[in-house]
Design a protein that fits this description.
Lipocalin_ApoD, 39% strand, Lipocalin_Blc-like_dom, Lipocalin/cytosolic fatty-acid binding domain-containing protein, Lipocln_cytosolic_FA-bd_dom, mainly beta, 3 helices
Length: 181
């Protein structure tokens, strides 16, 4: 599968809002205002913070992304999280392949590697116009993804900010996700 070549990691850093994705067991089923924030570390790895809001509480998980092959210019990254998020002891690594990004680094199509089990449409804003969204869906089809599995993520405008929202510190969402809830 062709991926973006020469991804400028510095330009890629910052906040990305999830516009749509394939539902996965490691995200709350009723999550909204889902977003990822990427920060470049001095060693060239990326600090990842994924957040979503479910049942009135903010849940998050932190991890690290790094190039799958440091000698390649392909935008094939690995992302490592430790599970469960409330007692991080088990490392879990997954693929994060940048399949398409616009020249201004405002929206992106990300796949979860060759399995085509995961797919995300991300944007710098909480919304994406229909024309651009449909363009990215068509791109995903070209890569062989079953786009009927795409689920649009509810986003608030403006998005929630600050630490006023209660946090799920017990990992209830994660335990429920194991049972498909």
């Amino acid at each position: 599968m062709e991926v973006v070549r020469g991804l400028d990691l510095e330009r890629y850093m910052g906040r990305w809002y999830e516009i749509a994705s394939f539902q996965s067991f490691f995200q709350p089923k009723n999550g909204k205002d889902t977003r990822a924030t990427y920060t470049l570390n001095q060693d060239g790895t990326v600090h990842v913070v994924n957040e979503t809001y479910t049942d009135g509480k903010k849940v998050s998980i932190e991890g690290t992304a790094y190039k799958a092959n440091p000698n390649s210019d392909e935008a094939k990254l690995k992302v490592k999280f430790y599970l469960p998020p409330f007692l991080p002891i088990i490392p879990v690594t997954g693929d994060y392949w940048v399949l398409y990004i616009d020249e201004d680094y405002q929206y992106v199509l990300v796949g979860g590697g060759p399995s085509k089990k995961y797919l995300w449409i991300l944007c710098r804003q909480t919304y994406l116009d229909d024309e651009t969204y449909n363009f990215l869906v068509e791109k995903a089809k070209e890569f062989g993804y079953d786009v009927s599995k795409l689920h649009k993520t509810p986003q608030s405008d403006p998005p929630p900010e600050g630490d006023n929202t209660p946090k799920d510190t017990k990992g209830i969402w994660w335990i429920k996700s194991l049972f498909g809830k």
